[in-house]
Amino acid sequence: MSKDIYILGIESSCDDTSAAICYNGKILSNITASQKIHEEWGGVVPELASRAHQENIVPVVDAAFKRAGITPEKLSAVAFTRGPGLIGSLLVGASFAKSFAMALEKPIIATHHMVAHILAHFIDEPKPAFPFICLTVSGGHTQLVLVKNYLDMEIIGTTVDDAAGEAFDKTAKMLGLAYPGGPLLDKLAQQGNAQAFTFAQSSVGELNFSFSGLKTSVLYFLQKQAPDFVEKNLSDLCASIQYTIVQMLMKQLIKASEQYNIREIAIAGGVSANSGLRQSIAQTGAELGWNTYIPAFQYCTDNAAMIAITAYFQFLENDFAAFDVSPLARWQF
Ligand code: KG4
Ligand code: ZN
Q1: In the predicted model, is pLDDT for residue 1 greater than 80?
Q2: Of ligand 1's atoms, which has the minimum distance to the CA of residue 172?
Q3: What is the pTM of this model?
């Protein structure tokens, strides 16, 4: 096998078009075009996302090669997010990757988006040791994953309804914040009092999560208030909601750590950018003797660097895909 492994990774599962180049497990470039078009609709509009991916993909890939300082002929493989995600968005990345690879006569690698969020921990130091537990929290998923090796993972807990990112975005919307509300709510929460208001913390069995009760609790609470209540209490409301979501996540994470007797603890996915969660993991980790791993901001939300690094590990395992592989909107690992 060649000592020089160059991989182009492409991510297009939702509303970010991203391309990255990885050389022997090191990221040389990671270029992302985020789609602003969805803000005015208050959520991602799938058809608009697919069209924006089509417009963005060539310039984004081109920029990734320029930043990395290599030409496409150098590539060992072309990787893309196979799923889970929006089918139209996935199709753009998959079709581009296949055509590009076919023209260059290179193999393709089909990568799992949620596995990639976890393996983003292997881009920079410090890297977690196996086995570790990863709390994967994004706009579409909330999972506790037992990571036994790079490509050997088991979901040990999951949400029975909404994802944590959805809980952030939907409650933020109730407060009149723009989409995506998670980062905006986080920013406002930093000036607020987390104990100002109390919201329901749903409790579910085993290592699972439930966030739909919180949504209802916030909605009913707001309906009872005067018209200017939200405006006057915005940062306290944000801090209290954030506190509630973080507490619910931490409770199950602590339980998982005890149950599996594992103190290597990581977080991944878009919500791992949340300041409250980052703080809480660091603090609880120090109290309970955990080694905690929090990815750099740029590798928390959707990016192609995580696809390229995951594909590098797949490459080492000869895990290539056939050219007739199709994207999957839902895909359990
Ligand atoms: O992983 P990601 O970029 O895309 C998906 O695969 O879903 O996650 C996006 C989610 C959105 O719900 C967004 O509001 C949330 O991550 N998010 C945050 C923060 N940054 C992103 N939620 C809370 N606080 C943040 N700072
Ligand atoms: Zn994601």
Answers
A1: no
A2: 14
A3: 0.95
Instruction: pLDDT band for 125, please (50, 70, 90 cuts).
Output: very high
Is residue 208 scored above 60 in pLDDT?
A: yes
Question: Which letter, b or e, does each residue of 286-298 get, where b requires 16 or more Cβ atoms within 10 Å of its Cβ?
Answer: eeeebebbbbeee
Q: Tell me which residues have their CB within 5 A of the ion that is ligand 2.
A: 138, 302
Q: What structural domains does the chain harbor?
A: 6-118+300-316 (3.30.420.40), 128-295 (3.30.420.40)
Measure the CA–CA gap between 119 and 134, rounded to whole angstroms. Answer: 10
Q: If you take atom 22 of ligand 1, which residue's CA is the nearest one?
A: 182
Mean pLDDT (whole number) for 303-307: 98
Measured distance CA(236)–CA(15) in Å, rounded: 30
Mean pLDDT of 160-182: 95
First to last CA, the chain: 28
Nearest CA to ligand 1 atom 24: 274
Q: Which pLDDT band holds residue 110 (cuts at 50, 70, 90)?
A: very high
Looking from the CA of residue 276, the nearest atom of ligand 1 is 24
Q: What are the DSSP calls for 147-160, one per residue?
A: EEETTEEEEEEEBS
Instruction: Return the best residue to mutate from 301, 303, 307, 331 for the ligand 1 pocket (most ligand atoms within 8 A of CB).
Output: 301
Q: Is the CB of 108 under 6 A from ligand 1?
A: no
Using CA atoms, how far apart are residues 119 and 42, in angstroms rounded to an integer? Answer: 30
Q: Can you list the alpha helix ranges (DSSP code H) found in the chain?
A: 46-68, 87-104, 113-119, 164-174, 181-189, 212-223, 229-260, 275-288, 305-316
Q: Which residues pair with 79 in a beta bridge?
A: 9, 109
Ligand 1 mutation pick, 168, 184, 187, 190, max ligand atoms within 8 A of CB = 168
Ligand 2 centre from 258 Cα, in Å? 27
